[in-house]
Amino acid sequence: MSVDIKATVFLPKTDFPMKAGLPELEPKLLARWERIGLFARQRDAGQGKPKFTLHDGPPYANGHLHIGHALNKILKDVINRTQSMLGKDAHYVPGWDCHGLPIEWKIEEKYREAGQDKDQVPVVQFREECRQFARQWIDIQREEFKRLGVGGDWNHPYTTMTNRAEATIARELGKVLLDGSLYKGAKPVMWSVVEKTALAEAEVEYHDHTSTTIWVGFPVETSPRTELVGAKVVIWTTTPWTMPGNRAVAYGADIDYVLVKPQGFAADAGPHAFEGVRMLVAQPLLEQVQKDAGFASYEILGSYKGADLAGTICRHPLRNHPQAAGGYDFTVPLLEGDFVTTDTGTGFVHIAPGHGEDDFHLGRANNIAVPDTVQPDGTYYPSVAIFAGQAVLAQGKNGKYYSPVAKPVIEAMKACGALLASGKVEHSYPHSWRSKAPLIFRTTPQWFVSMETTSLRAKALAAIDDTRFVPAQGRNRIGSMIESRPDWCLSRQRAWGVPITVFVDKRTGQPLRDGAVMDRIVAAFETDGSDAWYTSKPERFLGEGRDPADYEQVFDILDVWFDSGCTHAFVLEGDEWPGLAWPASLYLEGSDQHRGWFHSSLLESCATRGRAPYDSVLTHGFVLDEDGRKMSKSLGNVVSPQDVVGTQGADILRLWVVGSDYSDDLRIGPEILKTQVDIYRRLRNTLRYLLGALDGFTDAEKLAPDQMPELERWVLHRLTELDAGLKVACDDFTFHGWFTELHNFCAVDLSAFYFDIRKDALYCDRPDSLRRRAARTVFDIVLDSLCKWLAPFACFTAEEAWLARHPSEDGSVHLETFPDIPAGWADPDLAAKWEKIRLVRRVVTGALEVERAAKRIGSSLQANPVLYVEGALAAAIEGQDMAELAITSGMLVVEGEAPAEAFRLPDIDGVGVVSRPSDGDKCQRCWKVLPEVGHQAHAGICARCAEAVAG
Question: Is it true that domain 212-425 has CATH number 3.90.740.10?
């Protein structure tokens, strides 16, 4: 009876498809995880294990996810999954930031479009619309996050707008109120005239802005240096709109100043007001002032140290303006300021205590009152002479912001003979990171947390020293911010948020510090939410014995950074999520959060608990396009995570994250994603080959390592190296280096080397051959390891491969832990030996490529080369079947120097190959070319194959 030779070859067999079809597969796996209750089962499995708590920095609930969100949440998920597979209880509770201006702004836009005034809407109704808006986007974002494969307590997330959260935020505020560190003070703050509220440093970003500049002379009225009387002290400013608020001029005590008489101004606009007029400027800046003002020459009349100017009094340059009406009839003293430099300007700084921090402190130190000049909407108060009602900031038709009052200020200065020059300058300027509008400094009464009263600064700096930062430079970044930051401004003049739950005693002006009052507020918020502050009578909070008429109830809202800074208190503490622990093991956000969430959480926790709410902080960079440019719709370079997931799959995005060095800015685009697809395909093909090769494999087939050939034991050694590297990567929260090694292991060590060599044994050896059993045993170990190692990274594909190997109604690789790789598998000496063997093999395969290119052979199995090898390399290959390793039908190994015509590689000494064809016929089963083919019981096959066929 003839035998079907082809049917006796053990070809790989698997239902695991070559083409992934991730966009279709992934939703099915998500539905399966939901059906089997995977997250709940993971929590059950974590009972009693060490806790790992990655506290989620809340994204804002106001729009679709962008690629930065995808990076952040995937990285969090990877870390949670790795920690879980290390044997920890990694309970992850996602959350959302819900209060604040962006949502409020959207609701206001709706009213503006309808021609309605938001301020005429009942505040509770307005707040409910904000709340509904946030809920809508939470639902949308939740599904988008889940689609990325991010596992978590999605059915029970946290939000900052629940009753419990708002009550906790109020309780935390009460702590800083009761310990005396909360106070109301008038200080200069960053003010958004567009949003009509104060902003904190964390809400400010810097962009280039074009400002009008002016050089203005302040006439000297009196001075200990009598020769200065009548001269003009020249200042330079980039904010002409602050001139109505001027109350002093600052000089540097050690700066050299000169009294000069400028001459030779251009006469095309008529006689210049400063022609021949004595003026005082810093000597180092004189030539620059001459250039800026455009006068031909000058005469130096005197030289002074700044200290010589003490006691000099000027008048405001607008005092004699026809429309001044006495509005500028005050004196303007010259005051020493340690912040004055000769870097730019004139060496004199005009001081408007209401519009600058240095100005404010210098004015306060010299008992100068802070005038009210600019209203919350950015227009001058009616009391401001000449400019009442005019706007200090407006948006032009081109969308850029400018100061419309700059020109009237210039004209007014000209009318008074006070303008030396004007110009334009482009400089870095603070903007709101929400509205993108420029900000102004404005001194207003606000609520602050002192950095000094309870040593908050010192506590925060000590906490930073006790925190692990990844990368390490994050410590210096946040540390320098804490060292220099002013008191924390908590108040916002808006409606949507947690109110500042404070009553002010009208008689003393001091906040009421009463724990019982705060307890009643917290209790009210727990039952009714923070709307209770607006709907309840003050008696509900003040209690018996206090007359509400004696107190002013504060209706400012809290800085949303205080909200998010309190999340540790209502998420990690208490019993709502008992699987979590305080302090968090890790906070993880973008590097901008050193000034944001990391910062506010640190201050809040140090103020109320004396330490940071986290043990470690990890920061990642921003996402740029392939050319390193910021993404924008106008450039057409925006990569949407929804598009990538819908066309290529979430696992591709996940591989991009773990394959990137996220300690720096990341890049993404079509070519980069194409690279990730190629990497994914190689990983998938590795899994598919392993699954196919393991068809029918059972425990009875397994071999112990000590029964295996060296090649298999070398693979096991490589697993120990990968296992050790993974543990380091998990501890460092840095995966890209290890993932590159894993990919190379699959593509080079396995596919291009081990699989290639063992393919013959797998397909053609007898089922009970030691070599085949050893290979299949190692394949089983490698597949198990790869599925588990890939599970945190390519979570969908790892699950698909796991279920292909372990079919189950409710099983999951995500219920497993990382493989237990025995330390005894490590064999550095064997690894060193096989490194030498692979060098020799590389010379042989190089020679075969030359033969193939010359078309002298087609397959390497048509070759039977002569291998010449010397020294240590000869010792390394002793006893090895080099024909098997090089996949030839035979090989003659000669220890000694190769002849001159032998093929060599320049980087490998002592190895040469002389090519020659293999004699004999081709085995129809294994395709080797051997003399023995045709001399077996079965025609057309070799002796090994004949034995396999015979069984």
Answer: yes
